[in-house]
Amino acid sequence: MLSGYTGERLLLTLWIGALWSIGYLAVPMAFANLDVTIAGDYAGKLFYAVNIISLISACILLVSRLFIFGLKTFHRYWRSWLILAMLIMSFIFLAFIQPEMTSIKLLDWRADAVLSERFNTLHQFSESLYMLMSLLGLMLVLTTDKRAEAEQVS
């Protein structure tokens, strides 16, 4: 049977691996090999899927951490706060950024300067947020919570 720590590491690795492989491998390859419009639509679908994976993974990890550490000590662990922050970022992507970008794409946004500027602003914000989420995830995968490990041993 997998311990809570091992299960967390496995789920984190799968989740963060999905973030990195979609954002830094699949989407750039799509833009390198497909028409820009098709690649953009494909990228949107891939990012939607990875954000669903992010939401599910973060929820599972947070619930499991609540069971392991309890409600009274959950807030003491920096990894819990990072996972919560990444959950919020995924929610921002799914609830605000992606729907707004999709609605702009449905309009003739390339011909309209205001829509084009709005799309570019959203795109730059989403790139920055995705990079932050990727780096936070990498930090989670590469580090451990020393206090939690010490408490599990004792």
UniProtKB/TrEMBL annotation:
Zinc is among the record's keywords: no
Q: Where are the transmembrane segments?
A: 12-34, 46-68, 80-97, 128-144
User: Is Transmembrane a UniProt keyword of this protein?
Assistant: yes
Localization annotation? Membrane
Where is this chain primarily localised?
membrane
UniProt keywords, alphabetically: Membrane, Transmembrane, Transmembrane helix
Domain of life of the source? Bacteria
UniProt xrefs under InterPro entries: TMEM205-like (IPR025423)
Q: Which Pfam families match?
A: DUF4149 (PF13664)
For the TMEM205-like domain, which residue ranges apply?
Answer: 10-105
- What is this protein called in UniProt? TMEM205-like domain-containing protein
Organism this protein belongs to: Methylophaga marina
**Upper taxonomic classification of the species?**
Bacteria, Pseudomonadati, Pseudomonadota, Gammaproteobacteria, Thiotrichales
